[in-house]
Amino acid sequence: MRNGSFAVAVFVAVTAVRLLQASPIRHFHQVVALDVNGHLAIDTHNGSVTVTTWKQPNVQIDARIEADPQSDTPGDVEKTNIKVTGSGSSVRIESDYSAVSSRVSWLGFSIGGSQSNLPLVHYTITMPAAAALNIDEHNSKVMVTGLRNDLTIDGHNGAIAVRDHDGAAKVETHNGSISVAFARFNRASRFETHNGDVEVRMPAGSRFDLNAEGHRSRPVTSDFALTGSREDSDVSAHVNGGGPELRFSTHNGMLHLVKQ
User: Fold this and answer.
1) Are residues 110 and 214 in the same domain?
2) Residues 117 and 156 reside in one and the same domain
């Protein structure tokens, strides 16, 4: 019994030490000049991106870098950097994993970890409302609020949410969900997904042309009256007399049009 208690105590102690070693955190902060009508690009892999807006001619970048809970290489946090280039008309922010040991896959097994176990980078960014934004993410959760210019997001698995948007939106993802709320819909926008659903909210009086295509029966639900042709997997319709195009393409997902 005594030997068993000792073994349990050793196991608990070793586990506690490993948890402490596996959870280092680094913080990053930088403010860069960005024209009020400039362009911001963000390229990241794991973590999250939260973007809000203001009227100042600069972008404020805060990031928290932490180990993935499933990672056995917490030292990778120190090797992960935030790379910021440009100023004025264009700024680019990139999660830089170039110093992290490469991940090699052999016969389906990962040697030295996997890309999904790279450190998490959680961005909190404030940018000019009238600047354009481009986000390229892989496993990151994205939230963008208050943008007054065009938005492009290319995603893979993360959930994407856009609120109070006034501009064109081009959003593509593979497995993640997409939720976009327009303050007004006055520019052509496009949403593409493989498996995830898309919810688009806009004012009841919005005028637009809907073109939707999918690989499943009836891929669109709508609070708006749709005037036009509606086949099993394709929809081409005018809403409130028509206007800018809203294009939707999916494999297994659904488009939900909601009045707000």
Assistant:
1) no
2) no
